[in-house]
Write a structure and sequence with these properties.
Blueprint (H helix, E strand, L loop, with lengths): L4 E6 L8 E7 L2 E7 L12 H5 L14 E4 L2 E4 L2 H19 L6 E2 L6 H15 L4 E2 L5
Parallel strand pairs: 6-7
Antiparallel strand pairs: 1-2, 2-3, 4-5
Bound molecules: iron/sulfur cluster.
């Protein structure tokens, strides 16, 4: 019988940040329960936090960046993808100005990530066109 490892973590599905305990066997999540020690949720979770983890091991989950080349999405490296993004943003900014670029930030990410996102837009891009459902 496989040994069950217990991994404490924080749910990333919404900004509440519930503490979770993952039960892991053979490097696969087999169960999730609320962390009783977590001050935010004291062992409780909503249905997403407890059950919506099948995507973690889904065979069709995206694991690499894809760049559209000649109408077809082609697997690329992260370096290639970041170079592509930087070149496209630079070209758009030079041709149309900073306000031609906008960004929609993720409400499910951390405050720190949202801070960096708005900082990037305001300083590197030079635009205030940033929003998210958490009003980034
Ligand atoms: S368990 Fe539910 S309420 Fe808690 S952080 Fe996850 S999605 Fe949000």
């Amino acid at each position: 019988m496989a040994e069950t490892a217990k991994v404490r973590t924080v749910c990333g599905y919404c900004g509440t940040g519930c503490g979770l305990v993952l039960e892991v066997e053979n490097n696969q999540i087999v169960k999730i329960r609320g962390d009783k020690e977590a001050p935010v949720n004291k062992g409780q979770t909503c249905v997403k936090g407890a059950f919506a983890y099948k995507y973690v091991h889904a065979p069709n989950r995206l694991k690499h960046p894809l760049i559209r080349k000649g109408g077809t999405l082609v697997q690329s490296t992260w370096d290639e993808a970041y170079d592509f993004i930087a070149k496209r943003l630079t070209n758009i900014k030079e041709k149309h100005g900073s306000d031609a670029i906008s960004m929609f930030a993720c409400a499910r990410t951390t405050n720190e990530s949202n801070y960096i996102t708005q900082k990037f837009m305001r300083t590197a891009i030079g635009s205030n066109h940033i929003d998210g459902c958490n009003r980034t």
